Amino acid sequence: MKTAWIRDAQRCAKGLLHRFGVCDPTHIVVEPFAVRLGIEIVEVRLDGAAAQLVLNGKRAIIMVSDRITDPAARRFSIAHELGHFMLGHPSRPPAELCTPFRHATGHATERDYEAEANAFAAELLMPAVLLQRACEISPVDLAVPRTIARRYEVSILASTIRFAELASERCAAVFSAAGKVKWVAPSPTFTYAIGRGRRVDRASLAWDYFARGDIADEPQAVPADAWLDTSAEVDIVEHSICSRELGTVLTMLWIPERVAPKLGEI
Ligand SMILES: [Zn+2]
Predict the structure, then answer these.
(1) C-alpha 94 to ligand 1 mean position (Å)
(2) What order do you get walking across the sheet with 220-223 strand by strand?
């Protein structure tokens, strides 16, 4: 559930996009944005964090870890720190590290600076105004998130979460590791609960990776109860891909319009 703070963070990013005249993905250049905001970017050795905003009197510095070699991760980290800066978050001691990609888990009433910075970064790097139409499509699979990742220079995780957020269809991004669900990012119309910590079901495609080390990279029909707590004997659509390097699976689930009435509200 989106809090008012998250919406404010997105609104702030939209304001910056407008101010910098962004109307094409190639206009989204986070380092020149930082310079225009009077922020210095320096590469340093950072243990346990990708980047950190340091406020020192009137000076603002974004320290970026020299260990980040992936341009998409670097872009997201800088955008995340720009979020902390633009949203006026308090400067924190170095022991409190930033956590890009952590999905919001807080209650709607709690303020979550990390979730706000991530929402800001997602809006800045993948503006709704440029992406909305591409996300209002059917059928749903990982094809559009892949295109977004390429065109907007973001990771497939970031683009898949963003796609679900803007999607008009009932769909959800699900991230699994060690055979268990780590987080779920549902579309606004996906009202079905998939609990964190849920075991990846044998009937799912994601299970193939944890059992056999491989997945067929294509959308396929799977029984709804492979992912949802339902007794309805209907199929939903799953497209899963794995990262062998990280031992994780990213899944896009899609509940087609004709299937939804049979599932009811779970
Ligand atoms: Zn942070």
Answers:
(1) 11
(2) 180-186, 170-177, 248-255, 235-243, 220-223
Q: Tell me how far the alpha carbon of residue 99 lies from the centroid of ligand 1, in angstroms.
A: 5
Contact partners, residue 2, CB within 8 Å, separation at least 6: none
Burial 180-202 (b: 16+ CB within 10 A, else e): ebebbbbbeebebebeeebebee
Q: For the chain, give the number of residues.
A: 266
Is residue 145 within 8 A of residue 158, CB to CB? The reply is no
pLDDT score of 218 more than 80: yes
Q: Which helix (H) or strand (E) holds 256?
A: none
Whether the predicted model's global pTM rises above the 0.90 cut: yes
Least Cα distance to 14 among 120, 104, 168, 93 occurs for 120
Distance 75 CA to ligand 1 centre (A): 14
Residue 7 Cα to ligand 1 midpoint, Å, equals 17
108 DSSP 8-state letter: T
